[in-house]
Amino acid sequence: MKTLAIIPSRYASTRFPGKPLVDIAGKSMIQRVYEKATLASTIDEVIVATDDQRIYDHVSDFGGKVMMTATRHQSGTERCGEVSALLNSFETVVNIQGDEPFIPPEMIDELVFSFQKQSGNKIATLVKPIEETSILFNPNVVKVVLGKKGNALYFSRQPIPFQRGVLEIDWLNNHTYYKHIGIYAFHRKTLENLVKLPLSSLEQSEQLEQLRWLENGYSISAGITQYESRGIDTPEDLSKIQS
């Protein structure tokens, strides 16, 4: 089963314009993500998908594979869908966020192994147990509730489930909470169908596109990882790793 990793990358980030090209210890962020992805043993090919000529030229300059995509896309998933439709020799597509310069290749392999373990999987992602109360109540950290078979029941920026009558400081002692790791594996045909779905009400409410898939009846398998990655969403995040 051939697996394609796609790294969607756009220049015009609202919170951090030009983020893919920022320098991190001598290499751009997008180059670091690309190189990490190529180290994953389960990945047959890595492609950066962008709509910006500056990113396209930069990736080409460091020897990476890159494709220019349409400017109309509203999400990285849509950008991945365009590339996937053109490269139909791959059965599995992995969406790796372009702001994860420290993503462990082992985490990517873990996702792909999890996806392939059950032939019926159409979408797979990863989650990690939450160990700090500050993380649990941070709305920028997406939480997920799992079913008994390891499928995602719901994603939220709020801590879920709510514990009635329990002090918030004790929540982690009474229940295992999971944060979502924003990396996905798709069956190629499933990805092409997902990008055709209209915006959903749950997605609009939480600003989480995976809720659109759940709302339309798709199952998302969630593997539990102990690996950690450190995304860079803002200039402040970059300053922290450089200090």
How would the blueprint of this fold be written?
Blueprint: E1 3-9, E2 23-24, E3 27-28, H1 29-38, E4 45-50, H2 53-61, E5 66-68, H3 76-86, E6 92-95, H4 105-117, E7 123-129, H5 133-136, E8 143-146, E9 152-156, H6 171-174, E10 178-187, H7 188-194, H8 201-206, H9 210-215, E11 221-224, H10 235-242
Parallel strand pairs: 1-4, 1-6, 4-5, 7-11
Antiparallel strand pairs: 2-3, 6-10, 7-10, 8-9, 8-10
Helix pairs in contact: 3-7
Plain-language structure description:
This protein has 243 residues and is α/β, with parallel strands linked by helices. The protein has a single domain (3-229), classed as Spore Coat Polysaccharide Biosynthesis Protein SpsA, Chain A, CATH 3.90.550.10. The chain is 32% helix and 22% strand. It has helices at 29-38, 53-61, 76-86, 105-117, 133-136, 171-174, 188-194, 201-206, 210-215, 235-242, and strands spanning 3-9, 23-24, 27-28, 45-50, 66-68, 92-95, 123-129, 143-146, 152-156, 178-187, 221-224. The strands form 2 sheets. Strands 1, 4, 5, 6, 7, 8, 9, 10 and 11 form a 9-stranded mixed beta sheet that branches. A two-stranded antiparallel sheet has the order 2-3. The chain is globular, with a radius of gyration of 18 Å. 38% of the residues are buried.
Please name the defining characteristics of this protein.
alpha/beta; globular; 243 residues; Spore Coat Polysaccharide Biosynthesis Protein SpsA, Chain A; two-stranded antiparallel sheet
